[in-house]
Design goal:
The longest helix has about 45 residues. A six-stranded mixed β-sheet has the order 1-6-5-2-4-3, sandwiched between helices. About 50% of the residues lie in helices and about 10% in strands. The chain contains eleven helices and six strands. By secondary structure, it is an alpha/beta fold. It is globular, with a radius of gyration of 22 Å. The termini are far apart.
Length: about 280
């Protein structure tokens, strides 16, 4: 599946050079069938990670309004056991959050070993919204790229698998989705005049995202640019990428489970011997 995956800083990257459409040959029916297969695999991989407790996963979802962050969460997380999944949304900081450094509220929601954490928006808002709307001087938010890189490196060093997705939609598709919300009673609750106001800053956000991708892409915390004009393809790309990444850890998790199981059996056998073989079963 051809997608743009950024694993190192690239001063020449431009978001406008990446298509928002599915590749030729991709079909909605084929995507649905594949997504079902991936759901079963993701659940199996999640169970292995939960049992091994050597890693966790952080999925960061960023995108313009109506890009489909909630839809991606529903379709991908729907395949997982909710026992080990948390979803956090980051809006306007509260008074308490403003009284701490900008990463304080983010780090509190980082996943524990064995768990999935999904961020609907994230620490990147502090170099996106803050920059576009001039909410802080450049001397402040300009330093945050380095802080973000250090933060993500810290998470990776402690076993967190970091995957960052930008849901890439066109301005035309966004307009159609926003208008559809007005006409559909089931989505009217999402109506927000700020979505239309933010469209007026489309180019400024593009510049802000370009700098994020150029400066905050790494092997341990890559950015995946997901063509998101077709919802069915967006969901497939996110699920496929998560599963592909987790597969690399499967053998290690299995070995950990086998080792833990052996140690547990030995401890249980020793206990039974000390009891003279009683209470076996």
């Amino acid at each position: 599946m051809p997608i743009t995956r950024l694993t190192k800083p690239d001063s020449k990257f431009r978001l406008d050079d990446v298509s928002t459409d599915p590749p030729r040959g991709a079909t909605k029916q084929g995507a649905a069938e594949r997504l079902k297969e991936l759901g079963e695999e993701l659940l199996e991989l999640q169970e292995l990670m939960w049992g091994a407790r050597t890693h966790s996963i952080l999925i960061v979802l960023q995108g313009r309004d109506a890009a489909g962050k909630d839809g991606a969460i529903k379709n991908v997380v729907g395949a997982l056991n909710p026992r080990g999944v948390t979803v956090s949304s980051f809006g306007v900081p509260t008074k308490e959050e403003r009284e701490h450094d900008f990463l304080w509220r983010i780090h509190r929601q980082a996943p524990r070993a064995g768990e999935f954490a999904i961020f609907n928006r994230s620490h990147y808002e502090d170099v996106l919204v803050v920059r576009v709307h001039d909410l802080a001087p450049k001397s402040l938010w300009g330093e945050r790229y380095g802080h973000i890189n250090d933060f993500e490196e810290l998470l990776a060093e402690h076993g967190t698998i970091v995957l960052k997705f930008f849901l890439h939609i066109s301005k035309k598709e966004q307009e159609e989705r926003l208008l559809e919300r007005e006409e559909n009673p089931s989505t009217a609750w999402k109506l927000n005049v700020n979505d239309w106001k933010e469209r007026e800053h489309w180019d400024e956000y593009t510049e802000a995202y370009d700098e994020v991708f150029r400066r905050c892409s790494s092997k341990h915390a890559p950015w995946c640019i997901v063509p998101a004009d077709a919802k069915w393809y967006r969901n497939l790309v996110v699920a496929e990428t998560v599963a592909e990444t987790m597969r690399d850890y499967r053998d290690g998790w299995l070995k950990t489970l086998e080792r833990n199981g052996k140690a547990g059996r030995e401890e249980l056998d020793e206990y039974r011997r000390s009891r003279g073989g009683r209470n076996k079963g």
